[in-house]
Structure formats: C-alpha cells, structure tokens
Design brief:
This protein has eleven helices and 25 strands. It is α+β, with helices and mostly antiparallel strands. Strands 5, 6, 7, 8, 9, 10, 11, 12 and 13 form a nine-stranded mixed β-sheet that branches. The chain has a seven-stranded antiparallel β-sheet with strand order 15-23-20-25-18-17-16. It is elongated and about 85 Å long. It starts with 6 loop residues before the first strand and ends with a strand.
C-alpha cells in the first residue's frame, strides 16, 4: 500500500504514523507485519514528538508535573492480524466466498450456476436426497449466480459481494420460492403437490447460503396461484380482471411489491362500461316504491327423467339442511329499527343510501348482479361494517342493522360469520348464475370470488325488496354424494320463491349436492338486495 496511515489514540492525544514509514515498509514486503508499538515514553515539557525507529512507531508526549519515566509495554493494535488475512486472501483470490448448502425432505435434482466467481473445490452433486445435505463453495471478488431446483420453473438468483448479500428475485436475505400446477380456468386453484425452496444468506464477505427443499403447504400454493393469476391479469390489461385479482392477491398474502406494481398499472386503465352501478341508476331503480311481489309463476319441482328411483329425486338426504323462512329479517333487526319504520324497508333504503354515498367503485359488477363492498373488495364482516359506519349519509345508521343480522345468525346457528356479501339486483335483467358457495379451499372460485377459504358450514342469505325465484339443482359431480342413474339422468330441478324479509339457510352437506342461483325474470320485476353470510 503506497499511502497507508494508522491512527493511534495515546493518553487522549492523537498521533499519526509517518507515511514514509508505511511506504518504506510496503516496499520491503512486510506491510502485513506493521504494528503499533509504544516502546518508549519520553517526557519533555511543552511538545509532542512522533518518531520512527526501525519499522516501529515510537510515540512520545509531554505532560506537566514531576518528571518521571514510565515504560509502557508494546501493544498489538490488531492491524497486523487484519492485514495478514487480507494479504493471504488476496494471494489466494478469495476476496469473497460463499458456501451453498442444500438440504431436502424429498429427492430433488439441484444445480448451481455461477455467473461470476468460480467453484472452489468439489462440484455440487446433481441430486439431493432426504437427510443427505450437499454443498459447494464459490469464490471471487463478487459472486452471483442461480440455483435450479427440480419442480421449480424459474432459476433462483443469489448474490454475495460488496453491498448487500441477497437471494430471490426480490433481493432479500431470505426468500421462499414456490411452484405448483395451476388448474386451467381455475383462478388460483393449484392441482397436486407443489415444491417449495427456502433460501437464506448470511451477511459479510464469507457468506453461508442455505437452501431447504420441501413440499409446499396449502397456503403457499394458494399464494402462488394468486400471484400467477395476478400476473396473467397484468398481461391482459383489463380493468375488471386486474381489479379482481388484486383483491384476491391481497387476501392470499401475495408480496406487497407485486400488488403495488399491479395497482400502478390499474391506475392507467379505464373501467369497462357497466363495471360499476352508477349513482344515477341506483337513484332511479333502487327505490322502495318499485318493489314487486310474486308473479303468477308457481313454484315447481321437475324430477329426473332418467329414472323415478334416481337418487337426485330425494328432496333431502342424510344431514342435508335447507330452509326458506319468511319474517326473519324483521325478527333479527326489530330492536334497532327506528320507531314507526318497517324493518325490511329501513334496511333496504339504508343500504341504498350507503351505496350512493360510498366512494366510486364500491358497488361493482360480478356476473349478472352487483356487489357492495369496500373499494379493495374485502368482504369480511369487519370490512363491510367499517364501510357502513364510515358513511354518515347511511340512513338511520344501517350499520347497526347489518351487525344485528350477523349477531342473529351466529346465535341461531351457533356459528361465526366469516364473510358478508351484499348483492344488488336492480331489475328483472339481473341474475346470479347457478353456483355452489365456496366453503373450503378444495372448491374452485370464480373470477370475482374473494372468499377467504376458511372452512365454512353453511350460508344464511337474507332478502329485502322484490320477490325473486330461486333455482335449486341437484349435482352428480366429484363433489356430490349423489350418483347419476345413467346417461339419461337429467337430475332434479326445483324453483322456489323467496320473498321480502325471508331467510334462506343451507348447510355444507346440501351445498355439496346442489347448486343454487337466481335466474332472470320473464316479467317485470323491481329491485332486490340480498345479504349472504358465510358461517364457519
């Protein structure tokens, strides 16, 4: 080193070695042995002297008071050790080292591909088996590269060197990379087992990178599926799709950096026509004086035409439960309804006034109907109640009515309400396609489904406004315990009226063997609001 200075604090005074000393030592090839010594202490009044003898630094300083000599033993300040290590590492080309250790609970093929740096020692074995760790050592000034794991599509980057050591595409010191097979058209449903790799890197120029390979957990696979669906929506650049996938990604715990990127793109897109239920339409159509009762259409049951003994023809089997009961809305909220008001009308008008006062985008199109929720489409009870409580214009404090429905449901069915979906049906053209409610992660949600996938046991759906027909169909698919009677099986179809103030409740057993929906009306029909509560 041509210019090397060492500072030493001696008795509160700062002394600096002569640059010539360091230069002369460097020229003679033993800069690594340079040390600071205090081998003599000469006292003289009024001055401080720094001397160089041989290749050591002798430090002297004057102090006031009686003259007396004090010998101080030589002290090694640690510079020698540091420089020896630095020089040895420089000679060996080991400015930075990284040891990558791979462990696995499954048999997996693994490879390490350095893009800078080189392998020092034996190469990494190509296969890692359970309880048999494998490792490889890399060295160089800067070490970068990728780790490939069988079952994970993309290579996982790593970097060790000046600055910050990192692993993963987000360049952090810890990363969990997951991969699975996403079902076609399944939103974020992942089929089969997935693979997860946990990577960690230590700090410093001598780094340890650990890679732990295992089977992915169900939450990790759902998060992976949500991320893939979000990335696909970003490529499509369609406002509705992207908005829905952002909401799903948030509920699945996708990294915030991905959500931020998608929201930035969303701001550049324009909503499709009819994406939201505009305030003018609500003002004109969602009015209590437009409410209609039942038409002349009778309730009906159409049995399977394949065989009269078909299992589909049984109304209820085993522990299946389905009930449609009138008057329960009034029973649930009568104590919080203002004096002189009709409970059903008060709840209906309160929800409409809240929707009109809510921020744009809180009433959004989902299939053939509209859903009212917070702008991030969070449909948890807390989020829906928070939205209603934040709107002073909400007529008569309708949040109290919604909370009363939740409390009534939990008491009646001994459950916990985990989600609240408020559906707006402006007229006869609205509909809710045939579907099962999502009671667990094994079921597949649609594009606009934002269910939390907490295992549920039933649904309680309250109706206020116009009477509408419900269509109830039996199912014989892989989820259902019903078996088709043959190729000619047409299954059982039932049409039931649900009136203003009624409650429809069904449990998980019925939900697996049936679908339900609200078809379009062939006659003029007024507005209706349904409040569906998922129960766990």
């Amino acid at each position: 080193l041509k210019c090397f200075s060492v500072f030493a604090m001696v008795d509160g005074g700062l002394s600096q070695t002569s640059p010539e000393v360091a230069q002369r030592a460097s020229g003679r090839g033993f800069i690594g042995q340079l040390s600071l010594r205090r081998s003599e202490l000469r006292r003289s009044r009024g001055s401080s002297v720094v001397q160089a003898k041989n290749d050591s630094t002798v430090i002297s300083r004057s102090v006031s008071g009686p003259r007396r000599n004090k010998s101080v033993e030589s002290r090694d300040w640690g510079v020698s050790s540091f420089l020896k290590q630095t020089k040895a590492r420089a000679r060996a080309g080991l400015g930075t080292t990284a040891r990558i250790t791979v462990t696995s609970t499954i048999t997996a093929a693994v490879s390490v591909s350095p893009t800078s740096g080189r392998v020092a020692g034996p190469a990494l074995p190509s296969v890692c088996t359970p309880d048999a760790p494998i490792s490889v050592k890399l060295c160089g000034d800067v070490i970068t590269g990728t780790v490939r794991v069988d079952g994970i599509a993309d290579p996982i980057p790593f970097a060790v060197g000046p600055g910050k050591n990192s692993v993963g595409e987000l360049e952090r010191m810890r990363a969990v990379v997951v991969h699975g097979n996403v079902a076609a058209g399944g939103g974020f449903q992942v089929e089969g087992d997935g693979v997860a790799a946990e990577l960690q890197v230590t700090d410093g120029s001598t780094a340890e990178i650990t890679v732990s390979i295992r089977k992915a957990t169900e939450p990790e696979l759902r998060r992976f599926g949500a991320l893939k669906a979000l990335q696909e929506a970003e490529q499509k650049k369609t406002y509705n799709d992207l908005h829905a996938q952002i909401a799903k990604a948030r509920t699945r715990g996708v990294e915030q950096v991905h959500i931020d990127r998608a929201e930035k793109l969303l701001k550049t897109l324009k909503p499709d026509p009819g994406t939201f239920l505009c305030k003018q339409t609500m003002k004109e159509q969602m009015r209590w004086d437009k409410i209609t009762d039942r038409s002349e259409e009778p309730e009906s049951v159409v049995l399977c035409a394949g065989s009269p003994d078909c299992s589909c023809n049984e109304p209820l089997r085993g522990n299946e439960q389905l009930e449609i009961t009138t008057g329960l809305v009034a029973q649930a909220i009568h104590h919080c309804t203002p004096k002189g008001a009709t409970p059903e009308q008060w709840l209906f008008e309160g929800l409409v006034s809240a929707a009109m006062a809510a921020p744009e985008g809180c009433v959004w199109k989902a299939g053939g109907k509209y859903i009212m929720s917070s702008t991030d489409r969070n449909q948890s009870p807390a989020a829906v109640l928070r939205l209603l409580e934040s709107i002073p214009e909400a007529k008569g404090g309708v949040a109290r009515g919604m909370r009363a429905l939740v409390n009534f449901t939990e008491a009646r069915y001994s459950c916990n309400v985990t989600a609240v979906q408020v559906n707006f049906h402006p007229d006869q053209s609205s509909f809710h396609a045939q579907h099962r409610d999502i009671f667990s992660a094994k079921q597949r949600g649609g594009l606009n489904c934002t269910c939390s996938f907490r295992t549920c046991v039933g649904t309680a759906c309250y109706s206020v406004g116009s009477s509408r027909v419900l269509m109830l169909d039996t199912m014989t698919d892989e989820f259902s315990s019903l078996e088709a009677c043959g190729e000619a099986c047409t299954r059982r179809t039932e049409r039931r009226w649900v009136d203003n103030g009624a409650l429809m409740y069904f449990n998980d057993a019925w939900n697996l063997t049936h679908t339900h929906g609200v078809p379009q009306c062939a006659h003029d029909c007024g507005p209706r609001i349904s409040i569906a509560l998922l129960c766990s």
